[in-house]
Amino acid sequence: MRTFRSIVGLLLAGLLGLSGFTASAATPVEIQRSFEPAARAGTPGFSGFSAARGQQFFSSAHGNDWSCTSCHTASPVAPGRHAKTGKEIAALAPAANPQRFTDAAKVEKWFKRNCNDVLGRICSAQEKGDVLAYLMSLAK
Amino acid sequence: MRNTFKRKIFDSIVWPVSLLLAFGLLIDDASAGTKGFSATNATWKAECGSCHLAYPPGLLPAPAWRRMMAGLDKHFGTDASIDARTAAEIGAFLENNAGQGKRGSDSGTLRVSETPWFRRKHDEVAASTWKNPKVRTAANCTACHAGAERADFDEHAVRIPR
To answer: Phi and psi of B75, rounded to 5°?
Structure first.
């Protein structure tokens, strides 16, 4: 019995440790919420994020050759393809790919890179929140 | 008599020694960079493999990898920047397993397909093959080297798409 208890204790401790380890795991909603203070500060009369504005932003060219859809396609519930290398890119919409937008550092890394490629600048918090609103509005 | 002696010396020392040297060079060249193809690192595989094949470190000499890692924000026309800690880990892995021998000399290019050994190895590939939509670019190793993801570039396994 004692052994059993200590095993359960160990397992519980392990689980706790694991959840501590994955403390950086977030949900798309939490990630979107983290953009809000900066969006509020940067957008006069900020009135939340908009899926429609996000879709518009996502599918438009912004002065460079590529738009978001060049790699992620106009239907981000489906896998995309890198416009240059042709390598498959897993679906971007959380409904189709639950791993998306669950790691804040990864989200920041890709927004920085891809906004630089598509817009030649970093994206504003409003733009990122809108894109997330659009992607979260998509159903599988 | 003297000539015969000279001949004997030649036969018994000079020939074997040069053969050994030549053999040593061959072995060295064949094994040069084996490590650069078998070595693996999870961070390298994940980061370098997200947009394209994670090109094995043995494909480029150490100085080229150093320049590559110093310019990730302008990586062949796209921004591939990563945080400093990740960059340091990947950079060390690439340099420690970088190309040796014929793949160890720095020709100045960062494109594997522009290095002298790559050109030599692929000089019999027809221009039409490179333009084939299934190939598109010399960066697309997997088009002909099915085992490229496992760093298997054995020329006997090459299948050129038609």
So the answer is: -100, 95
> Which residue, B22, B56, B64, is CA-closest to B40?
B56
The two three-digit tokens of residue B80, written as one number: 């591939």
Element containing residue B19 per DSSP (H, E): helix B15-31
User: What number is the average pLDDT over the span A50-68?
Assistant: 97
> Model's pTM, two decimal places?
0.80
Among A89, A116, A118, the strongest candidate for a mutation testing the B interface, having the largest count of B CBs within 10 A, is: A116
Contact B78 A112 (CB under 8 A): no
The verdict on a CB contact (< 8 Å) between B78 and A113 is yes
> From the CA of B82, how many Å to the nearest CA of chain A?
7
Spell out the residues 6+ positions from residue B144 whose beta carbon is closer than 8 angstroms to its own: B135, B158, B159, B160, B161
Question: Could you give the 3-state DSSP secondary structure of residue A40?
Answer: helix
Question: Which residues in chain A have their CB less than 8 angstroms from residue B81's CB?
Answer: 109, 112-113
Residue of B53, B79, B136 with shortest CB distance to A112: B79
| Region A46-72 average pLDDT | 97
Euclidean distance between CA atoms B56 and B38, whole angstroms = 8
Q: State the complex-level ipTM.
A: 0.81
Distance from CA of A82 to the nearest CA of B (A): 7
Distances (CA, A) of B1 to A67, B6, B26, B84: 86, 9, 37, 73
| DSSP 8-class letter at A74 | S
